[in-house]
Design brief:
Layout: E1 6-15, H1 22-40, E2 44-52, H2 56-65, H3 69-86, E3 93-96, H4 100-115, E4 119-129, E5 134-136, E6 154-163, H5 169-177, E7 183-184, H6 186-195, E8 203-204, E9 206-208, E10 217-218, E11 221-226, H7 228-233, H8 235-238, H9 246-251, E12 255-260, H10 264-277, E13 285-289, E14 292-294, H11 306-316, H12 318-328, E15 335-337, H13 339-369, H14 383-402, H15 406-427, H16 429-433, H17 439-460, H18 465-475, H19 524-530, H20 557-561, E16 565-575, E17 583-588, E18 595-599, H21 607-610, E19 614-618, E20 624-626, E21 629-631, E22 634-635, E23 637-640, E24 643-646, E25 658-659
Parallel strand pairs: 1-2, 1-12, 2-3, 7-13, 12-13, 14-15
Antiparallel strand pairs: 4-5, 4-6, 6-8, 9-11, 10-11, 16-17, 16-19, 16-25, 17-18, 19-22, 20-21, 23-24
Helix pairs in contact: 2-3, 6-10, 11-12, 12-13, 12-15, 13-15, 13-17, 14-15, 14-17, 15-17, 17-18
Bound molecules: 5'-O-[(L-methionyl)-sulphamoyl]adenosine.
5'-O-[(L-methionyl)-sulphamoyl]adenosine binds near residues 23 and 291.
Length: about 650
């Protein structure tokens, strides 16, 4: 991305007839991440959001609530501002269409178009949807119903003012065809060109006051108010002070809009025609995202609506919510929201991949180097992969952001996280720390880790700014920019403190079946306990003193004697590919060669913490295959309230010792 460019990004202005919800939050968060990224790139950025406060829908909602439209708009607009403040949205301005600064510009543009003959008075009869506040053609109607609301369209005929939009049809087609990425992704460009295959009608831009008073009066005929879409679209210009104002001169030539696919037609067709008629340049890009649907996963049944879904931001934390929305939705396509998938990503991507990396790396720097990153050291040949990956990831993130593909940018960043985690496993700093002769290698490895965290803090800053700030804090660093994303920027001697858990691991709620078990699946009850699973919480109230599960039926001692329990020493531990929960352990049980066992503990233990530990396994279980890995035994672990502890010895015994 060219540094020092100018960038002006807008979200739709949201109707004040509904409280802020998941859909609004997604658009606003995506815009926020984009603007933060462009600021990190050194660009001059202006980020606008706001509320759309006129029209039938608002007037009716206010009447229903028994308050004036203005009072109603004041309250809900404040709720939007409050929601964005709580989410640390970095907007530079917030426009309300009831503000005088907006009304003045709308009226000036109307007058200019009227004077230029672009607006005429006429009569129109057609099928009208009061929900959408627009006419539909016979072709667009679905069995006489509004295609959006599925409610009956009403035939209304009235005198109104019309904008001569039809005369811009050929110009608009040519304009879009000459600019392949004006409207993106391409599917939406094609959709707009599809609309333009039918003759474009002139646009009714007024509503008679006899029917609706809640709007901006036409400057040339006060019997009418302005049609809400004509009023609303102009916010993008009025917020800059209107055509010719200094902020408009600076930012307008670089404007990009971000919208959901539901409002493609006003932005893809009305708006460019309006701009052309008023002598203003058309936007640089119209970025269109898909829709969030609710439902699908089991837990999402509990999410009644999009407002409730938005409230999960407080339950799981703002960064987790932001990350999930941006990572889960492929830009331009629809996505499904469920609490279950949010928790899944929180545990695997945030707590496991990122959180563990930060806590492992900082703990090792604290424990093995007194918390100071040494200037000297030999990071070993594996460090080249980390540096090369950083270069690649920086380019991939930039390409993705140019295309508004937020999810691709995050995938690239997580590739870097995986490489750094792999570096730790490969160089095993804990083993280097045991050998004073390998001090140089240890110092080099610890520098590589600290420097990777510094780079990660920059890469993550646009997406999960709270987390990026926490990472900077353990490194004692001030915010940095994209130009600082070059290997070697960390000053030797930097003091590093141990990071706490960046993301709490969420235990899957009742009903969610963990993908694996602690060893063989047939010992289901043990496995379920890992997650407080299947039977947890089903006891009748008062049946137990504590939250301990109910006792199992008693068995004779010889039944227990059949279980061959042994001391085992963990030789190595690594994640099972594609699994969130499983670790593959190689354990020494005093036999000729170590055994492989698979354990569902990945969300509770970083693999490195297990190496060298003496644990207890069931050695005589029939072997089983979990996620493609054959498991020859099962480790024993206890669990309660979502916490899990692997059984270890309080005194030393050799591998293979019997446990009874
Ligand atoms: N006021 C108009 C926009 C005028 S812009 C000049 C409007 N407002 S709205 O409150 O209905 O907001 C619509 C926008 O909210 C969508 O374009 C999208 O950005 C966001 N979303 C609302 N529901 C959504 C989903 N379920 N999924 C994704 N985004 C959605 O239309």
């Amino acid at each position: 991305m060219t540094a020092k460019a100018t960038f002006y990004l807008t979200t739709p202005i949201y109707y004040v007839n509904a409280r802020p919800h998941l859909g609004h939050a997604y658009t606003t968060i995506a815009a926020d991440a984009m603007c933060r990224y462009r600021r990190l790139a050194g660009d001059r950025v202006w980020f606008l959001t706001g509320t759309d406060e006129h029209g039938d829908n608002i007037a009716r909602a206010a009447a229903k609530a028994g308050v004036s439209p203005q009072a109603y708009a004041d309250e809900i607009s404040a709720a939007f501002r409050d929601a964005w403040r709580r989410l640390s949205i970095s907007n530079d301005d917030f426009i309300r269409t009831t503000e005088p600064r907006h009304q003045t510009v709308v009226q000036a543009i109307l007058q200019k178009l009227y004077d230029a003959g672009e607006i005429y008075f006429g009569k129109y009869g057609g099928l009208y949807c009061f929900g959408c506040e627009r006419f539909y053609t016979e072709k667009e109607a679905v069995d006489g119903n509004c295609p959006q609301h599925l409610t009956a369209l009403e035939f209304i005929e009235e005198e109104n003012y019309f904008f001569r939009m039809s005369k811009y049809q050929d110009w608009l087609i040519a304009y879009i065809e000459a600019r392949p990425d004006l409207i993106r992704p391409e599917r939406y460009r094609n959709e707009v060109l599809g609309f333009l295959r039918d003759p474009l009608q002139d646009l009714s831009i007024s509503r008679p006051k006899s029917r609706l008073e809640w709007g901006i009066p036409l400057p040339f005929d006060d019997r009418f108010v302005t049609y809400v879409w004509f009023d609303a679209l102009i916010n993008y210009v009025s917020a800059l002070g209107g055509p010719g104002a200094p902020a408009w001169e600076t930012f307008w030539p670089h404007v990009e809009h971000l919208i959901g696919k539901d409002i493609l037609k006003p932005h893809g067709i009305y708006w460019p025609c309006m701009l052309k008629a008023a002598g203003m340049p058309v936007y640089a890009h119209l970025n269109v995202h898909g829709y969030w649907n609710l439902g699908g996963g089991k837990m999402s049944k509990s999410i009644g609506n999009v407002v409730e879904a938005f409230q999960l931001t407080d339950k799981y934390g703002h960064d987790a919510f932001r990350y999930f929305l941006m990572r889960e939705m492929t830009f331009g396509l629809d996505a499904n929201f469920s609490e279950e998938s949010l928790v899944g990503r929180l545990n695997s991507d945030l707590a496991n991949d990122l959180g563990n990396l930060v806590s492992r790396a900082t703990t090792m720097i604290a424990n093995f180097a007194g918390g100071v990153v040494s200037p000297h050291g030999d990071p070993g040949p594996q460090a080249a992969v980390v540096r090369d990956t950083l270069d690649k990831v920086r380019r991939d993130v930039d390409d993705a952001m140019r295309a508004f593909a937020l999810q691709r940018a995050l995938v690239a960043i997580w590739e870097f996280i995986a490489i750094v985690n792999g570096y730790i496993d490969a160089v095993q700093p804990w083993a280097l720390a045991r050998d004073p002769a390998r001090r140089e290698r240890l110092d080099g490895a610890l520098y590589t880790l600290a420097e990777s965290l510094r780079c990660l803090a920059i890469l993550l800053d646009a997406f999960i700014p709270g987390t990026a700030a926490k990472i900077r804090e353990v490194l004692g660093l001030a915010p940095q920019a994209l130009v600082d994303l070059r290997w070697g920027g960390l000053m030797p001697g930097t003091r590093v403190s141990k990071a706490g858990a960046l993301f709490p691991r969420i235990v899957a709620p009742v009903g969610i079946h963990p993908e694996g078990a602690l060893g063989a699946p047939r010992v289901g009850s043990v496995a379920m306990d890992v997650e407080g699973g299947k039977d947890a919480g089903r006891e009748p109230a008062g049946a137990r003193r504590t939250s301990a599960p109910a006792a199992a039926p008693r068995i004779p001692i010889d039944a227990f004697a059949k279980i061959d329990l042994r001391v085992a020493q963990v030789v190595s531990a690594e994640p099972v590919p594609k699994s969130r929960k499983l670790l593959k352990l190689r354990v020494d049980v005093g036999e000729v060669a170590p055994r492989t066992i698979v354990a569902g503990i990945a969300e509770h233990y970083p693999p490195a913490d297990l190496v060298g530990k003496k644990i207890v396994i069931v050695a005589n279980l029939e072997s089983t295959t979990l996620m493609g890995v054959e498991s020859d035994g099962m480790l024993i672990a206890g669990s309660a309230d979502g916490r899990l502890a692997v059984l270890a010895l309080d005194r030393d015994l050799p591998p293979g010792a019997r446990v009874r």
